[in-house]
Design goal:
The complex is a heterodimer of chains A (about 140) and B (about 325).
Chain A (H helix, E strand, L loop, with lengths): L26 H22 L6 H21 L7 H25 L12 H10 L9
Chain B lengths: L1 H9 L14 H4 L10 H36 L1 H7 L5 H26 L3 H31 L14 H7 L9 H6 L5 H8 L23 H12 L19 H33 L9 H25 L3
Helix pairs in contact in B: 3-4, 3-11, 3-12, 5-6, 5-12, 6-11, 11-12
The chains are: A mainly alpha (about 140), B mainly alpha (about 325).
Chain lengths: ~140, ~325
């Protein structure tokens, strides 16, 4: 099928329903893609109820990436399209990932917003006035 | 292929168009705009333009996904707590609805390519039904949450009715031992407190009112009431304000939830508009195997709407 690439359709647009432009995707491919997407949806919902610790979110995102790949390759014809269209999509995604990585590197260095122990005002009061509080140096 | 090479010699300088039509392509294909040489060039140019638009959509949603990541990394407990208020079943049904409507859209493109007008109209109608069905389910999800005040910002902290307002109400005055109440929100500390109260009296006037917290110091009694109210309900029935497990800043989850699913919902709404327009055009027989670019390009848009939801669904509904 991939031999029917772009720009090769000029001039035979009327025979057998073959399009003048673009690429025909067989019904079997479309239905197989749809079925795979539904199965993957069931899998990712099922994994939600199983405690795999850290792995849960990676599996969820991994399944989503596989589903996104199936949609873009087969439903969106990128499998047979001009490579430049794929580059446009992947390029935009790379920039999103770039922003994501740098933001997460930054957030990873943040101090925790919730300090352990009591709030400062409460701790001051406890130190000075609590029953049996240790005598603190003034 | 030969006219593609000929095109360079006479195609670009003069836009008086139809005078320069050595292969009769413009006469043969009325849909071929005068500034394109071949139907294929026109189709591929339009498609590239569509992909450029879709790239901006990816960046548009990408910024929100980065925002989501930062918020979830900052408050992971908020996300694992609040996602239980989302209906996984409804979300899963909506995922399947979008996938099936993507499938019917892809079949519709093939139908247009093969001159099957009836199939094209059927597929577009099914896709439109999927889009509207998605919005209807989303409407029920939204209204349910609005009813429970599961909203963004300050509204998240408003009791939904008088009964909940009484449950949430905290009274600073009747605290027997303010020191213990301040020091420990754990209700079991009250037992130890009973013994300690007989110890040297505490100068209550020395306690400054807390700066933060509109309801003042949390009393042990109110915590006990909350725990009792929580225990007497199934989990989903607990009003979030009296759920003892409510982490601070849970309203943030609903802020990002409404922003992302709302923006996606607007895209679905736009999809309803353009697919409806396609349906009317298809019924009028405007598309055929030579000219079906609008079907193909709206299909690409619709698949991107599906793609975004494929990521939104696990990130909001499927947090373990």
């Amino acid at each position: 099928m991939s031999s029917h690439s772009h720009a090769a359709h000029d001039g035979h647009g009327h025979g057998g329903g073959h399009p003048l432009v673009g690429h025909l995707v067989p019904y079997s491919t479309l239905f197989a893609t749809g079925a795979a997407l539904l199965v993957l949806t069931v899998i990712t919902v099922a994994v939600r109820y199983v405690d795999l610790g850290e792995a849960n979110i990676y599996i969820a995102i991994g399944v989503a990436v596989v589903k996104a790949t199936l949609v873009s390759l087969f439903f969106m014809h990128l499998r047979w399209d001009r490579p430049f269209n794929l580059m446009v999509l992947v390029g935009s995604m790379l920039f999103v990932i770039l922003m994501m990585v740098f933001c997460m590197m930054d957030v990873g260095q943040n101090e925790p917003t919730v300090a352990p122990g009591n709030a400062p005002l409460v701790q001051t009061y406890l130190d000075s006035n609590a029953p049996f509080a240790p005598v603190t140096s003034k | 292929m030969s006219h593609a090479t000929h095109a360079d010699s006479h195609g670009h300088d003069g836009h008086d168009g139809h005078g320069h039509d050595p292969h009769g392509l413009h006469a043969k294909y009325p849909f071929l705009a005068h500034h394109f040489d071949t139907p294929n060039q026109q189709f591929e140019s339009g498609k590239l333009g569509m992909w450029a638009f879709l790239a901006t959509e990816v960046l548009f949603f990408g910024a929100l996904f980065v925002m989501y990541a930062v918020m979830r990394f900052t408050d992971p407990e908020v996300f694992s707590f609040a996602s239980r208020y989302l209906d996984t079943i409804l979300g899963g049904i909506n995922t399947c609805v979008l996938i099936l409507s993507s499938l019917t859209m892809a079949i519709g493109v093939r139908a247009a390519q093969t001159n099957k007008k009836g199939l094209l109209v059927t597929c577009l109608a099914l896709t439109l039904a999927g889009a509207i069905g998605f919005l209807v389910i989303k409407y029920f999800e939204y209204t349910h949450k609005f009813h429970l005040n599961l909203k963004w910002g300050e509204a998240f902290y408003q009791p939904v009715d008088e009964a909940e307002a009484q449950l949430v109400k905290t009274e600073p005055a009747p605290v027997a031992n303010p020191v213990l109440a301040i020091a420990s929100p754990n209700p079991s500390a009250g037992a130890a407190g009973a013994e300690l109260v007989s110890l040297p009296p505490v100068d209550r006037t020395a306690i400054a009112a807390p700066k933060a917290g509109p309801d003042g110091v949390v009393s042990i009694e109110s915590l006990k009431e909350k725990a009792a109210a929580a225990a007497s309900h199934a989990h989903e029935e607990i009003p979030h304000l009296v759920d003892p497990g409510l982490p601070p800043n849970t309203h943030r989850f609903f802020a990002i939830y409404y922003i992302m699913t709302g923006l996606h919902g607007i895209h679905v709404l736009i999809g309803v508009g353009v697919i409806g327009w396609l349906l009317v055009m298809a019924m009028r027989g405007r598309f055929n195997s030579n000219y079906y670019a609008p079907v193909d390009f709206v299909g690409l848009y619709w698949h991107v709407v599906d793609l975004v939801w494929i990521f939104l669904f696990p990130l909001f509904y499927l947090i373990h």
